[in-house]
């Protein structure tokens, strides 16, 4: 067989003249293709740079040659080297009259230049001219360039022409003109605000390509402002209907499916439009939302996905589970084993997705298992980006659900130890605050135990090498405040440790500062108690060293410490009182004690002070900005991606049972501001350290919220309305699913069963748990519809956190289940056609041997191409085999052949 | 914004085509490509899914013979749709070149780019009809 093929090649060799490309270019491609290492490739490219630099200086380069040079420049940049010496030639080529050269020029320019590059100005003129061309392909090339190169400033230069082209007779031009307008809208919405109606109009273009493209800008517009586009719902419905009825040209079919890519886009838009709008969603889906049928269908799809062998489908299953779990918590329990399998899968992507799911279903009953797993995983990975993410999730879950303070501190220690450089400083402040304030209940005993356990754990950890800076700051602070408080450790022991820290991390000024301040506190407490202070020699030398420090901050701390050592007990006590880090210090922000002085000055003729914002007349705006700023700082740890995709409606949830939100979007952002605007300077810096408010904003209501959602079904309702009395019932019901499952599958690994039980088993228990405790603490909540306003009392640390998590939980009841379904709809939309999606994807796993794809394609080519190829039995593909042979032969002529260094270059991608 | 970049990289990690829909400097591109290629090429096990998270991208990739097609997308993009988009791209190239292979893309880099220009604009999939994608390219071929 191989022989036959070779003979064919030899036969075809004779007459051909090449691809119209020069030997030089073919040689370059050949050598790049055959290079074995990056270093070899770099050598080739570097010598190519030298050659091109020379060649481009030659006069009168023929245009064909020039095009080749430009593509060689593209190669240079693509392979990671700078080709800026040739940019100007690419720019010049856009002026060329020949379409191919012009388009190549535009292509190169879009690859080389960013929209703010100086050379762009030379192209704008050409673009303007080309937009007026009679040749529609030239217009298209120019529009492509417009979409890449026009920035905010140059929009006006081409805008009128682009608008004219919206009505061009060629559909390809209309399509690209719409996308150019889309680009302008992204770059500068105000520049095209008067033209937005064009997007609506082009939706009804009689060319499906233009209609399909218009969906892109419409998606953007609708996600910015849903309400203004509700009237389009019926249009989208009828378009989708036409698509599924196969009224689009056959060429939009993809594997016998009618225009799947357009369908997906339509469904995404409809999900946006139906969000929170009953009538719109009824019009689209003829379902009352939340529709049990729809949920069931989604759950079915998910379980099919999860049971599939394809990792891609499993991934989608986990993804769908994560979206659905907010609406229907029961669904996860059915799939507990599948979830655990995915969690232990060697595939990192799947594992991460599963952690995301676990994060969404965390509650007080399983938080320990989940966070432990997350931390183990966090320690095992090197990817800082994801490490940061997972660390902040651990912190968030720990803050929200921690069963005990000891556990919380342990978790924080682990997070700091392994990802200390990656977590937000706010986390450290929260931890210090928690240790300082304890439970906030008046249980000093428990607080002291907590502090002691913190101090003990830190004394153990402190001698480990290379701790992250942030962690050391926490350790130093806690040791300073509480190191000697219990009397278990002596002042000299603690101060010795602190000196060691300052010594070991001498390059870290912040840590040193914390250590010195901690020393100061230790000595202050000693002095205040009337004990004699022996300053350790190493401490003395540290102070002396810092007195001469280049850092003024350290210097000042050292001087303060020195001064403090010389003071008597009473003075010291009032400077640094014991355990007073949480006391509020009243600061007279208005400096009212100066009023008399000012009055005097004004009376004697001085100008009264006019504040800066009054002077600039920007009162409102600056005020707004400062609020903004506050929000930013208080949100510092928040990772938007985990939020629901639309603004939650925190308070107005009409009743718990109706999860359709009312669109009152902007109520949430105002909450933190109201607490912070009135407090004094000192306090406002304190606010960063506070846990209150934090939880409300971070509160991941996800899983719990489903209580109320699912309480619409009878058994849950019984649970939900009950209080403590129901505990027994609930726990018995919790054991049920487990036992039934055990009887079904006795061969399951007990390890996994245990994990499943700890992850899923306790769910119904915890649900009733949560209900009952919330009933106890906040009886008003369930009965009244009044907005659960921000609690003015500082929110207590765990486990009481649970109760205060409730307000946010209500907000999630109000999220639109349809929204959550979006992803599912998308993926399942692909099986909207006749073919079975499982069949299509099951062999879509990464293809190492391309057999699966081959079978797909052969199906396709079988129907569409009709293969007459009797020449070769082994390639069963299309009528191109002869061409391919010729191509092969040609390349051999150039000296590239399958037996040379890189035979894979010849492998058919689809074969 | 949907698609952030499209890469074609062979199994030796050599870039065969790169198209970005947001501006990255040469250094940023080189670093990003290096990281992604290392990540994806290490995952050639058939029992793994075709998606990788990297920085704030989600990368959907698929291997055809010696060539990896990698598409970086935003978090809210549907992975399976992108996977099929890759296949559509390969089918389109196959239709044009006939039994497309890595070398075709290397010799006709600009054409591969032209096809992408027709299919994706502003990071959005705008055209999925092979006839529409290929017609301007065929017209240009005829003119020469």
TrEMBL record, chain A:
Which InterPro entries does the annotation name? Adaptor_Complx_Large_Subunit (IPR050840), AP4_complex_esu (IPR017109), ARM-like (IPR011989), ARM-type_fold (IPR016024), Clathrin/coatomer_adapt-like_N (IPR002553)
Pfam family name, one: Adaptin_N
Q: Is the Transport keyword given for this protein?
A: yes
Per the record, where are the segments of Pro residues compositional bias? 790-800
List GO terms (cellular component aspect). AP-4 adaptor complex; endomembrane system
Stated role: Subunit of novel type of clathrin- or non-clathrin-associated protein coat involved in targeting proteins from the trans-Golgi network (TGN) to the endosomal-lysosomal system.
Q: What is this protein called?
A: AP-4 complex subunit epsilon
Q: Which organism is it from?
A: Brassica carinata
Automatic annotation (TrEMBL), chain B:
Q: Which Gene3D superfamilies match?
A: 3.30.450.60
- What SUPFAM superfamilies has UniProt attached to this entry? SNARE-like (SSF64356)
Q: What do the Gene Ontology cellular component annotations say? A: cytoplasm; endomembrane system
Domain (AP complex mu/sigma subunit) ranges: 3-143
Under the heading InterPro entries, the entry gives: AP_complex_ssu, AP_mu_sigma_su, Longin-like_dom_sf
Per UniProt, which keywords does this protein have?
Answer: Membrane, Protein transport, Transport
Instruction: Supply the name of the protein.
Output: AP complex subunit sigma
Source organism: Brassica carinata (Ethiopian mustard)
């Amino acid at each position: 067989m191989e022989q036959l093929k070779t003979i064919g090649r030899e036969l075809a060799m004779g007459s051909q003249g090449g691809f119209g490309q020069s030997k030089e270019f073919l040689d370059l491609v050949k050598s790049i293709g055959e290079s074995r290492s990056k270093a070899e490739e770099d050598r080739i490219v570097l010598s190519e740079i030298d050659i091109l630099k020379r060649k481009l200086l030659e006069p009168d380069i023929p245009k064909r040659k020039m095009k080749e040079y430009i593509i060689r420049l593209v190669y240079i940049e693509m392979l990671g080297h700078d080709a800026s010496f040739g940019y100007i030639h690419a720019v010049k080529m856009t002026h060329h009259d020949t379409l191919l050269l012009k388009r190549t020029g535009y292509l190169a320019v879009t690859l080389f230049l960013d929209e703010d590059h100086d050379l762009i100005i030379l192209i704008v003129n050409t673009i303007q001219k080309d937009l007026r061309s009679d040749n529609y392909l030239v217009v298209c090339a120019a529009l492509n360039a417009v979409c890449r190169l026009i920035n905010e400033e140059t929009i006006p230069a081409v805008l009128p022409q682009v608008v004219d082209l919206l009505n061009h007779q060629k559909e390809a031009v209309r399509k690209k003109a719409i996308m150019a307008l889309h680009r302008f809208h992204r770059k500068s919405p105000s520049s095209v605000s008067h033209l937005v109606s064009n997007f609506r109009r082009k939706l009804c273009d009689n060319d499906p390509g233009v209609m399909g493209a218009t969906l892109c800008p419409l998606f953007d517009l609708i996600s910015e402002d849903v309400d203004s586009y509700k009237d389009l719902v019926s249009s989208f419905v009828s378009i989708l209907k036409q698509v599924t009825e196969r009224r689009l040209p056959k060429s939009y079919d993809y594997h016998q499916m009618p225009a799947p890519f357009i369908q997906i886009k339509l469904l995404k838009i409809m999900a946006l439009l139906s969000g929170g709008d009953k009538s719109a969603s009824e019009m689209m889906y003829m379902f009352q939302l939340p529709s049990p049928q729809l949920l069931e269908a989604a759950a079915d799809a998910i379980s099919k996905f999860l049971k599939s062998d394809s990792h891609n489908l499993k991934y989608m299953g986990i993804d769908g589970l994560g979206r659905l779990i907010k609406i229907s918590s029961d669904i996860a329990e059915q799939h507990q084993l599948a979830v655990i399998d995915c969690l232990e899968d060697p595939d990192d992507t799947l594992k991460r997705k599963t952690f995301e799911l676990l994060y969404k279903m965390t509650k007080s009953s399983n938080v320990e298992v989940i966070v432990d797993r997350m931390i183990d995983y966090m320690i095992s990975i090197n990817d800082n980006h994801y490490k940061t993410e997972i660390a902040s999730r651990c912190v968030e879950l720990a803050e929200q659900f921690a069963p005990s303070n000891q556990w919380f501190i342990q978790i924080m220690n682990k997070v700091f130890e392994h990802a200390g450089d990656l977590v937000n400083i706010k986390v450290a402040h929260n931890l210090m605050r928690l240790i300082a304030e304890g439970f906030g209940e008046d249980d000093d005993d428990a607080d002291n135990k907590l502090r002691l356990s913190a101090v003990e754990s830190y004394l153990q950890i402190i001698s480990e090498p290379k701790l992250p800076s942030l962690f050391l700051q926490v350790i130093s602070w806690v040791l300073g405040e509480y190191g000697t408080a219990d009397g278990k450790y002596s002042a000299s022991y603690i101060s010795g440790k602190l000196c060691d820290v300052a010594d070991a991390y001498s390059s870290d000024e912040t840590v040193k500062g914390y250590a010195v301040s901690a020393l100061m506190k230790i000595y202050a407490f000693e002095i205040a108690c009337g004990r004699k202070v022996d300053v350790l020699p190493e401490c003395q030398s540290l102070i002396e060293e810092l007195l001469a420090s280049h850092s003024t901050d350290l210097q000042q701390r050292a001087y303060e410490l020195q001064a403090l050592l010389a003071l008597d007990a009473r003075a010291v006590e009032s400077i640094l009182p014991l355990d007073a880090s949480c006391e509020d210090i009243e600061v007279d922000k208005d400096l009212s004690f100066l009023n008399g002085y000012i009055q005097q000055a004004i009376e004697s003729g001085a100008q009264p002070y006019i504040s800066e914002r009054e002077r600039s007349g920007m009162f409102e705006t600056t005020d707004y900005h400062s609020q903004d700023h506050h929000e930013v700082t208080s949100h510092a740890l928040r990772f938007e991606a985990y939020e629901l995709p639309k603004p939650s409606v925190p308070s107005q949830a009409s009743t718990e049972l109706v999860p359709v939100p009312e669109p009152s979007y902007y109520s949430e952002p105002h909450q933190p501001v109201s607490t912070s605007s009135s407090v004094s300077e000192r306090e406002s810096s304190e606010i960063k350290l506070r846990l209150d408010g934090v939880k409300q904003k971070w509160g991941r209501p996800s899983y719990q919220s489903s209580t109320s959602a699912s309480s619409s079904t009878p058994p849950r309702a019984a649970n939900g309305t009950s209080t403590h009395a129901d505990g027994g019932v609930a726990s018995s019901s919790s054991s049920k699913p487990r036992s039934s499952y055990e009887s079904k599958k006795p061969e399951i690994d007990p390890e996994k069963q245990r994990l499943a039980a700890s992850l899923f088993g306790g769910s119904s228990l915890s649900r009733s748990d949560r209900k009952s405790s919330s009933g106890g603490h906040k009886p008003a909540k369930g009965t009244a519809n009044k907005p659960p306003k921000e609690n003015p009392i500082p929110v207590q640390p765990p486990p009481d956190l649970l109760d205060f998590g409730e307000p946010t939980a209500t907000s999630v009841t109000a999220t639109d289940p349809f929204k959550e379904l979006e992803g599912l709809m998308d993926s399942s939309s692909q099986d909207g056609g006749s073919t079975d999606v499982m069949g299509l994807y099951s062999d879509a796993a990464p293809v190492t041997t391309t057999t699966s794809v081959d079978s797909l394609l052969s199906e396709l080519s079988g129907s569409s191409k009709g293969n007459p190829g009797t020449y070769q039995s082994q390639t069963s593909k299309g009528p191109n085999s002869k061409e391919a042979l010729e191509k092969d032969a040609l390349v051999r002529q150039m000296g590239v052949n399958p037996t040379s260094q890189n035979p894979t270059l010849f492998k058919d991608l689809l074969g | 914004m949907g698609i952030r970049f499209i890469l074609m990289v062979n199994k030796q990690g050599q870039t065969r085509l790169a198209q970005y829909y947001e501006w990255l400097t040469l250094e940023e591109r080189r670093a990003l490509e290096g990281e992604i290629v290392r990540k994806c090429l290490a995952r050639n096990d058939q029992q793994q899914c075709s998606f990788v998270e990297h920085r704030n991208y989600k990368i959907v990739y698929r291997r055809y013979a010696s060539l990896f097609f990698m598409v970086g997308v935003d978090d809210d993009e549907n992975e399976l749709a992108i996977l099929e988009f890759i296949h559509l791209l390969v089918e389109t190239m196959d239709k044009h070149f006939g039994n497309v292979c890595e070398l075709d893309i290397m010799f006709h880099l600009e054409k591969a780019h032209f096809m992408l220009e027709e299919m994706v604009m502003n990071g959005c999939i705008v055209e999925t009809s092979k006839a529409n994608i290929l017609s301007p390219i065929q017209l240009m071929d005829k003119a020469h």
